[in-house]
Design goal:
Blueprint: H1 3-7, H2 11-15, E1 20-21, H3 32-45, H4 55-74, E2 82-85, H5 88-103, E3 109-113, H6 118-131, E4 134-138, H7 148-154, E5 159-165, H8 177-186, E6 190-194, H9 206-209, E7 213-217, E8 228-232, H10 234-239, E9 250-254, E10 257-260, H11 274-290, H12 292-310, E11 316-318, E12 327-332, H13 337-346, E13 349-350, E14 352-354, H14 359-364, E15 370-374, H15 381-398
Parallel strand pairs: 1-13, 3-4, 3-5, 5-6, 6-7
Antiparallel strand pairs: 2-8, 7-8, 9-10, 11-12, 12-15, 14-15
C-alpha cells in the first residue's frame, strides 16, 4: 500500500497535515470518492427512488439498487439478503425485535458476553424481559477473551440465540466466531454477529462464516453516517415480521388487512437512505481496491509498534497488548480517562476515552473506562510516535500534581 497516496484521498488529512487521527473505531474518515458519490446524487439527481415515473427517479433508483448489489457482493451475500438500516445498532435491534420477539419463549436461552457493545447485548436483555427467555454470559478467560471451551460451557439445547461480536470495540480481540457458529447450529440456535469492528478491517464472507445475521455500520468503513446494513439469510428474513410500518414497505392496505413487500423491502419503511447507500457502496469499492487483507496486516503492525513503545512508559497500563487488530485500550495510573484524553488534543492526537458503550467489559477490567487508540490504513508510524509522545506528556503532566 502507498500510504502517502492513500492519505491524499482524505480531505480531512489534507487540511490537517499534523493530525494523528486515532479514533477510527468510532468513526472512519471519508475519502474523496465517497464524498463525491454522495454529492453527485444530491446535486445531479436529488429525487426519491421507486415509483417515480420520470427519468431522474429512474436514474436514482438504478444507483440505489446498484448500491445494494455492490454491498452484497462485498460480503458475498445475495441482493435480497441486504437490508439497509440506520446503522449497526439499528440492525442488531431489528434482529432482536423481529426474530427474537417472534420466535423466543419462556425458558429459551440467549448467549452473549461481557465483551459486547451495548447494541449487541441490550436488545436481547429486552427480549428476555418480554418473553421470559434467559440471557447467559460466556465466561471470559484471564485475558478477557471468548474461548471455544468457555462457549461450550454455556451452550445447551436451551440455547436459541447467540449474540456476539466478531471484534471487540474495547479489547480488539477477534472472536472465534466461525467455530461458534458451527457449534450453535448443532443445537439449533441462530447466531447474530456484531460486525461493526470487523467488516471495515477484514474480508468477510458470510457464506463461509455461515452466520445467520451480520450487522455493520457505514461510518466505520469510510462510508456516510446514518447508513447501516443487516445481512440475514433469506429464509430467516422471509419469515420475520417487519418492526416498522408505513410507506414503501406496504404491498396492499385495506381497512382490516395489510400485506408487505418481499424481503428486504418489508424492513425498509419510508424514504430510504438513498445517498447513504450510494456512498457506502463507493466505500466498499474503495476498500476492495486497497485489499482488506492488506489493511488488517498493516493495522496490526502499527498497533504492535505502538504497544512496544507504550510499554516503556512507566505508569501506563495496557489492557489488550496481544490484540489481533488495531485497537489499544489503556489507562494512565491515577488519571481519569477523560482527563488524559484532553492532553492528547493539545498534541493533535485524536483518541477516545470512556466506557465506549461497553460498560460490561470496562467493569470486568475494574475501571470506569479506558483511553482507546484505534488505527486504520491511512495512519502512519509517525502517528504512532505522536501517540507515544502524547502519552508520555500526559504522564509527566499529571505527575506534577
Amino acid at each position: 500500500m502507498n500510504i502517502d497516496k492513500l492519505r491524499n484521498d482524505f480531505p480531512v488529512l489534507r487540511d490537517n497535515p499534523k493530525l494523528a487521527y486515532l479514533d477510527n473505531a468510532a468513526m472512519a474518515l471519508k475519502p474523496d470518492c465517497v464524498i463525491q458519490a454522495v454529492d453527485n446524487y444530491y446535486s445531479k439527481l436529488g429525487v426519491n427512488v421507486h415509483r417515480g415515473v420520470y427519468k431522474l427517479s429512474y436514474e436514482a433508483t438504478d444507483l440505489y439498487e446498484e448500491a445494494r448489489d455492490i454491498i452484497a457482493k462485498f460480503i458475498n451475500a445475495s441482493f435480497e439478503e441486504v437490508v439497509f438500516t440506520r446503522g449497526a445498532s439499528s440492525s442488531l435491534n431489528l434482529v432482536a425485535l423481529s426474530y427474537g420477539l417472534s420466535f423466543l419463549k419462556e425458558g429459551d436461552e440467549i448467549i452473549t458476553s461481557e465483551l459486547e457493545h451495548h447494541s449487541s447485548h441490550m436488545p436481547w436483555m429486552n427480549v428476555a424481559k418480554l418473553t421470559g427467555a434467559k440471557v447467559v454470559y460466556v465466561p471470559l478467560n484471564d485475558e478477557g477473551r471468548i474461548t471455544i471451551q468457555a462457549f461450550k460451557s454455556v451452550l445447551s439445547n436451551k440455547t436459541k440465540v447467540v449474540a456476539l461480536n466478531y471484534v471487540s470495540n474495547v479489547m480488539g480481540y477477534i472472536t472465534p466466531i466461525e467455530e461458534i457458529i458451527k457449534l450453535s447450529h448443532e443445537v439449533g440456535a441462530i447466531v447474530s454477529v456484531d460486525g461493526a469492528q470487523a467488516v471495515p478491517h477484514m474480508k468477510i464472507d458470510v457464506k463461509k462464516l455461515d452466520c445467520d445475521f451480520l450487522s455493520f455500520s457505514g461510518h466505520k468503513l469510510c462510508g456516510p453516517t446514518g447508513i447501516g446494513v443487516l445481512y440475514g439469510k433469506k429464509e430467516l428474513l422471509d419469515k420475520m415480521p417487519p418492526i416498522e410500518f408505513g410507506g414503501d414497505m406496504a404491498d396492499t392496505v385495506k381497512k382490516d388487512e395489510m400485506t408487505f413487500k418481499a424481503t428486504p423491502y418489508k424492513f425498509e419503511t419510508g424514504t430510504p437512505i438513498i445517498a447513504g447507500a450510494i456512498g457506502l457502496a463507493k466505500a466498499c469499492q474503495y476498500l476492495d481496491s486497497i485489499g482488506l487483507d492488506n489493511i488488517s496486516k498493516y493495522e496490526k503492525m502499527l498497533k504492535d509498534e505502538a504497544v512496544k513503545k507504550l510499554k516503556l512508559i512507566k505508569g501506563v497500563k495496557i489492557y489488550n497488548p496481544n490484540a489481533e487488530t488495531g485497537i489499544i485500550s489503556f489507562n494512565i495510573d491515577g488519571v481519569h480517562p477523560h482527563d488524559a484524553a484532553s492532553v492528547f488534543d493539545n498534541e493533535d492526537v485524536c483518541i477516545r476515552a470512556g466506557h465506549h458503550c461497553a460498560q460490561l467489559i470496562t467493569s470486568w477490567l475494574g475501571t470506569i473506562g479506558t483511553v482507546r487508540a484505534s488505527f486504520y490504513f491511512y495512519n502512519t508510524l509517525e502517528d504512532v510516535d505522536k501517540l507515544v509522545k502524547g502519552v508520555s506528556d500526559a504522564v509527566d503532566f499529571f505527575n506534577m500534581f
